[in-house]
Design goal:
The complex is a heterodimer of chains A (about 550) and B (about 120). Chain A has three domains: about 100 residues, Uridine Diphospho-n-acetylenolpyruvylglucosamine Reductase, domain 2 (2-Layer Sandwich), CATH 3.30.43.10; about 130 residues, Uridine Diphospho-n-acetylenolpyruvylglucosamine Reductase, domain 3 (2-Layer Sandwich); about 250 residues, Vanillyl-alcohol Oxidase, Chain A, domain 3 (3-Layer(aba) Sandwich). In chain A, helix 8 packs across helix 9. In chain A, the strands form six sheets. A five-stranded antiparallel sheet of chain A has the order 5-6-10-8-9. In chain A, strands 12, 13, 14, 15 and 16 form a five-stranded antiparallel sheet that branches. The radius of gyration of chain A is 24 Å and the shape is globular. Chain A is built from 15 helices and 21 strands. The longest helix of chain A has 20 residues. The radius of gyration of chain B is 15 Å and the shape is globular. Classes of the chains: A alpha+beta (about 550), B mainly alpha (about 120). Chains A and B meet through helix 2, strand 5 and helix 4 of A and strand 1 and helix 4 of B. Strand 5 of chain A pairs antiparallel with strand 1 of chain B.
């Protein structure tokens, strides 16, 4: 068992006894077997001294017990690490940022407190998963959709606080932006409600976000300034229809126009669902396409073609043109989605086709049209999160296939935000391919972005984590280079695994790291004992400043 | 109109790729309740291990066994309870372990009993 770095065994034992008294002995976990359940199953530091591991776990049942645990932590200076469902695998899972922390497992706070169909909003606790909320919506018959990320076992609160994204309309797929009001246990143990919730008896907590005075909600995302115990979310009313259109372009340089036109259509509100790009020639599906039984890794790679997409010179373009001709597959595809009344989505698709018609030789697939409720046949073939249905089918990216007889054991993500241009997509891919080559690692397939965020693009590069120390070290070294070299080009990570918190935070360095110093000022003011999530997102309290390196 | 609800959400897990290593040995009689275990399975396991396409665990086991064993776990007749416990508490490949706040020990016994109900 690993103690927190500056806590004695006696103080730790005193804390555990107090936790047992506060939440009941059945909900304090100290045995090696039980604490091992809190390891990050996808840790890129698996079994190395640097792996971040908990000392114990405490699972309160309600807000009062959360407050009691925080007061005990202040009294004993034992740091807590709150998790919601603990399923942000690839970004840390249920393990703390500082080894020796006691995980505060909020899974038992699992109530859907309100579903307001007329206001299209919900109020939930952190232990509620997307699956749970989906079932609750179905059980009440409310015609509301939830926007979910690909893995549905996460928590709407946890994902929003990590600033995760989904697939439907922009107002909902930015999960933090879709929230309206929160309740927070502060590091002192006090209770705060934000927005209209600050007014006792407010009738509009889930209707008006700002309340009065500074809007502080953002301080509790990607931070360690408090423990969110309730959060409201705006839901998407079930639309009358959804139409999915596909656009195909054959020339390598067409990507520039595809991005430009799609951006214009989205910014002007014509395309209102999450769009994306793919390459039929490379057999790279658009991120929102259904995966079904055709997981990545199931096809042989045409190495010359793979290399040509990175090179992009005249010879490469000639090779790509030849392959387009010989295979009949387009170089690029774009996917656009429309939600709304049937007449409207059909008209929006016609407008989109007119605008993409600027591209010489562009072709359009037959649109997929969906009304609701979906048929059983539709449910078998669709990408479920596009329709507000949580799923785990995304995990087929790493399963056993005929070409990959041993399944992956984990993954980590490098996710830089880049400008919304074709040029940025090409440049970023070339930089990443060079770094991987120099690091002696296989170059991943040419990466095409989804458009989770409205104004920027984000490349999500998934890399394996393994149980082999040397392999993991090689990938970590490469990822640190990717982060650093991206920063020199002005591309920053939106989110990162625990192993890279400090590395990424150090790239947001304007004004001699003024932003980090601001975070530290807030941290020290709110949490002078440094007991809430030390090190989360690179923010270390005074007692641990600098963190474990 | 607002609809206050307070769903107390039960716990449980996603089971994964159970190997033949454990499969042939008869184990102790299941002590859990298969009916309750089915509810645990439905809530936690079917997203990966349900029947039909779109279930990664099922797809993976289809490749592994090539049809010699059913790819959906609830169609298996060789899963002794300790096998289920092993995979839920230790995970396998991309399947993480499940904590006791998700699947309690009692629920895990029920789940194991459900998956062992047709054991030969």
């Amino acid at each position: 068992m690993v103690l927190p770095p500056d806590v004695s065994q006696a103080e730790f034992d005193r804390a555990i006894a107090a936790f047992r008294n506060a939440v009941g002995p059945d909900w304090v976990f100290t045995s090696d077997d039980d604490v091992a359940l809190y390891r990050d199953a996808y840790s890129p530091m698996w079994s190395e001294p640097e792996e971040r591991v908990a000392s114990a776990a405490v699972a309160p049942a309600d807000v009062g017990e959360v407050q009691a645990a925080v007061r005990i932590a202040n009294d004993t200076r034992v740091p807590l690490y709150p998790i919601s469902t603990g399923r942000n695998l690839g970004y840390g899972g249920s393990a703390p940022a500082l080894s020796g922390s006691v995980v505060l497992d909020l899974k038992r706070l699992d109530r859907v407190l309100d579903i307001d169909e007329a206001n299209a909003s919900v109020l939930v606790e952190p232990g509620v998963s997307y699956f749970d909320l989906y079932r609750a919506l179905r059980d009440t018959g409310a015609k509301l959709w939830l926007d979910c990320p690909d893995p549905g076992w996460g928590s709407p609160i946890g994902n929003a606080l990590d600033r995760g994204g989904g697939y439907t309309r922009a107002a909902f797929r930015n999960h933090f932006d879709a929230h309206c009001g929160m309740e927070v246990v502060l590091p002192s143990g006090g209770l705060l409600r934000t927005g209209m919730g600050a007014m006792p008896g407010a009738k509009t907590w889930q209707q008006y976000k700002a309340g009065f005075g500074p809007w502080v909600d953002g301080l509790f995302s990607q931070s360690n300034f408090g423990i969110v115990t309730k959060m409201g979310f705006w839901m998407m009313p079930e639309p009358e229809a959804c139409l999915i259109g596909r656009i195909y372009a054959d020339k390598y340089d067409d990507l520039h126009a595809l991005v430009r036109i799609l951006t214009r259509l989205e910014n002007s509100g014509v395309v209102n669902g999450m769009p994306g790009f793919g390459s039929p020639l490379l057999q790279r599906r658009v991120p929102a396409d259904p995966q079904n039984n055709d997981p990545n890794g199931a096809t042989q790679i045409d190495q010359a073609l793979h290399d040509a997409f990175y090179t992009g010179d005249d010879a490469a373009k000639a090779l790509i043109a030849e392959r387009v001709k010989s295979t009949g597959r387009s170089c690029w595809s774009a996917l656009v989605k429309f939600y709304g009344p049937e007449r409207m989505v059909r008209l929006q698709w016609e407008i989109a086709k007119e605008q993409f018609g600027e591209i010489e030789g562009v072709r359009f697939g037959d649109p997929e049209f969906y009304g609701f409720p979906l048929s059983d046949a539709d449910l078998e073939k669709i990408h479920k999160p596009t329709f507000g249905i949580p799923s785990l089918s995304v995990f087929n990216f790493g399963i056993r296939t005929d070409l990959r007889p041993e399944p992956m054991v984990g993954h980590q993500a490098f996710s830089p935000v880049i400008p919304r241009t074709g040029a940025a997509i090409f440049e970023a891919n070339k930089v990443f391919a060079r770094i991987f080559t120099e690091e002696g690692l296989p170059v991943p397939p040419f990466n095409l972005p989804g458009c989770v965020w409205e104004r920027a693009l984000m490349l999500i590069c998934i890399f394996p984590t393994t149980h082999d120390v040397e392999t993991n070290r090689k990938y970590r070294k490469a990822l640190r280079r990717l982060i650093a070299e991206s920063a020199t080009r002005g591309w920053g990570e939106y989110r990162t695994p625990v192993a890279y918190y400090d590395t990424v935070m150090s790239t947001y360095s304007f004004g001699d790291h003024a932003l980090l110093r601001f975070h530290e000022t807030v941290k020290d003011a709110l949490d002078p004992n440094g007991i809430v999530s030390p090190g989360r997102y690179g923010i270390w309290p005074q007692r641990n400043r600098g963190g474990p390196r | 109109m607002s609809r206050p609800v307070a769903f107390v959400l039960a716990a449980a897990a996603v089971l994964a790729c159970c190997g033949t290593l454990y499969a042939a040995k008869p184990g102790p009689a299941p002590q859990g309740d298969p009916a309750r275990g089915q509810a645990v399975y439905t809530r936690w396991c079917t997203a990966c291990h349900g029947r039909g396409p779109g279930h990664p665990g099922t797809q993976s086991l289809q490749v592994k066994y090539g049809g010699k064993l059913p790819p959906a776990l609830e169609d298996r007749t060789d899963l002794a309870p300790p096998v289920t416990v092993q995979f839920v508490r230790h995970g396998f490949a991309l399947m993480p372990p499940f904590r006791k706040t998700e699947i309690s020990d009692a629920e895990l016994r029920d789940l194991a009993a459900y998956l062992a109900r047709n054991r030969k």
